[in-house]
Design a protein that fits this description.
five-stranded mixed beta sheet, three-stranded parallel beta sheet, Hepadnavirus_pol/RT
Length: about 240
Amino acid sequence: MTDELRSEIEHWDFLKNWDGFVSWRSEKHEHIFMASDASLFKFGAIILSGDKKGLAFGDFWDENDTRPIHLKEAEAVIKALQSVADHIGNHRVDLFTDNMSVIHAWENQGGKDPHLNRLMKTLFILTVDLNIKLNLFHVPSSLNEADTPSRSLHITDSMLSDFAWSYVQQLFGPHSVDLMSLDSNCMKDEFGLCLKHYTPYPTPKSAGVNVFAQDLSKEKNAYVFPPFQLIFPLLSCLEG
C-alpha cells in the first residue's frame, strides 16, 4: 500500500464512528457571490453581493512559500471563505476563480495532484463546518475582481525586523496584543506564536476588524505599529 493510499484511507476512516450530522440549510436560498485570486506573494478576495458588497481583503504568503500557483489559488479559496466565515455560514456561495485546475479538482472530488487533493479535503471540511453550498465558477484573469487585492502592496504592510522586535520585547514586553496587523505580519510571543491581533479587514486569524471599533479597555500591554497618519487618532482611542 502506498503512503498516499494509506493517507486517503485514514482520512475517511472517521466515518466508522462518526455520529455527527449535516445541518439543514435554510430554504431561503440566501446567496453570496465572491471572487478569489492568488499571486505568487499574496492572496486576495472580494465580496460581490449583499450588505458587504465591495469588501476586498487579502494577505501575504510566507516569504519561503514556493508552491506552484494552482496550489496557492486553491488555498486562496480556502482563506477567502475562512476570512468571512461569520458572514457566509448557512448560505449558498458562488465563488469565481481564474484557475481551472482548482475548479476541476473541486467538481471531480480530487485529481492527480496529491497536494491539491489535500487542499480540496480541507475545503470540503470547511464547507461542512460552515454548512455552505459552494459552487466554483471560472472567470478570465482579466475580469477577476480579486486580482487587485491579490497584488497590492502598501507601506502599512511593513513590520519590525525580528531583531528590532526582540529588542522591543526586552524593553517593554511581554506584549499581549498587536493592535494593527495582518495574519502574515502579526508580532509573535516568546513561543513563536502570533499575538492576538486586530486587522483592517477580515482574515482567518483576526480577533476583530478595525481597532477603532474594538473595546480596548481590557487589553494589557498592547503593541502597535500604526501608519503615521493614524498615530494621533490611535492615541486618542487608547486614552478614551
